[in-house]
UniProtKB/TrEMBL annotation:
PANTHER family: GALACTOFURANOSYLTRANSFERASE GLFT2, RHAMNOSYLTRANSFERASE WBBL. CDD domains: GT_2_like_c. Residues 6-123 form the Glycosyltransferase 2-like domain. InterPro entries: Glyco_trans_2-like, Nucleotide-diphossugar_trans. The keyword Lipid biosynthesis does not apply. This is Mycofactocin system glycosyltransferase. Belongs to the glycosyltransferase 2 family. Keywords: Glycosyltransferase, Transferase.
Length: 330
């Protein structure tokens, strides 16, 4: 069995691949795979003509992020001890892959580790997807060191450390392949968004740890496949967040949390409407409707008590009422 493989998922990302694959090839030691989700653009031609050293996995349809990675990893199962998931819109740095894998080798009880994720467009600031390590509050709202809602911190070295987190970012994370396959992988019903949070939650309930390692840094664009302004992103975030809570909270806690979320998500929809984002408001209600219609179709559930690592119980209260805008702010 070889040590590790880097796997990039692609869907109609010919321009993104052209821009970011060169840095991945230049600075990476381990073999690079691109799993193509049945793109209709010239992605495959680009890879064959300009990047012959990249190994291509051609998928028969667009399985989304969750299903796409499940299919890609299934095709190379048994060949590598570790996988590195990397978004197509990431610029990497020297020895990034070696250092992440060395970390996992030194910590066999760690199922996954992520680097510091900075913004490609504003390189001295953190990026939304993962930033300085991911946590989740008691109502299911994810947050990061370096990012509370839309407040993004400047990188001053404040998170150049190593901490235990609740989840690692799908933008860039190194994982143990055996644990991934034994777990059943990502929940393919998510399609995209929050599948890594669900997977990490399930694995934490099995006793595994997840880590943030701030000595490795990468630069992420974010929104390359689905822009932040796209209402579908709002829909997937709300629906998949509810699904994650239903699957992983003990039943006695789920009922209380869901009652709170009905109120808070209705308020979020109202805020969208006040800002003129009617399409996003509609997606909040559609997310709740579809969640209740298909909530029993997810593949794996835990419904067990599982300790969170974040210190914040109610992020909305801390952020909007107490005015706490950063992780380190008292």
């Amino acid at each position: 069995m070889q040590k590790a493989a880097i796997v990039i998922l692609n869907y109609n990302g010919v321009e993104t691949l052209s821009k970011f694959l060169p840095s991945v090839i230049k600075y990476s030691t381990f073999p690079v795979y691109v799993a193509d989700n049945a793109s209709s653009d010239n992605s495959i031609d680009l890879l064959k003509e300009n990047f012959p050293q990249v190994r291509l996995i051609s998928l028969k349809q667009n399985f989304g992020f969750a299903g796409g990675y499940n299919e890609a990893f299934r095709s190379i199962q048994g060949k590598y001890k570790f996988y590195i998931l990397l978004n197509s819109d990431v610029e990497v740095t020297d020895r990034w892959d070696i250092n992440l894998i060395k970390y996992l080798e030194a910590h066999p009880y760690v199922a996954g580790v992520q680097p510091k994720i900075l913004s490609f467009g504003q390189r001295d600031h953190f990026e939304h997807s993962g930033a300085g390590g991911g946590f989740i509050d008691s109502l299911g709202y994810p947050y990061c060191r370096g990012r509370f809602f839309e407040t993004i911190e400047k990188d001053r070295g404040q998170y150049d450390d190593e901490v235990t987190v609740d989840w690692v970012s799908g933008a860039c994370m190194a994982i143990q392949s055996e644990i991934f396959h034994e777990s059943g992988g990502f929940d393919a019903s998510y399609f995209s968004h929050m599948e890594e949070i669900d997977w990490c939650w399930r694995m934490r309930c099995e006793g595994y740890l997840f880590k943030y390692y701030g000595q490795v840094g990468i630069y992420h664009v974010g929104g390359a496949t689905l822009a932040h302004s796209n209402p579908k992103k709002t829909y997937l975030n709300f629906r998949n967040n509810l699904t994650t809570l239903k699957k992983n909270l003990p039943n006695r806690d789920w009922i209380k949390v869901y009652c709170s979320r009905i109120v808070l998500d209705t308020l979020a929809a109202f805020v969208f409407m006040m800002k003129g984002n009617l399409d996003h408001a509609k997606m909040v209600f559609r997310a709740h409707h579809d969640f209740n219609r298909i909530k029993n179709q997810s593949s794996v559930a835990t419904n067990r008590e599982c300790q969170r690592n974040g210190e914040i119980q109610f992020l909305l209260w801390e952020y909007y009422i107490k005015g706490r805008k950063t992780f380190l702010q008292a």
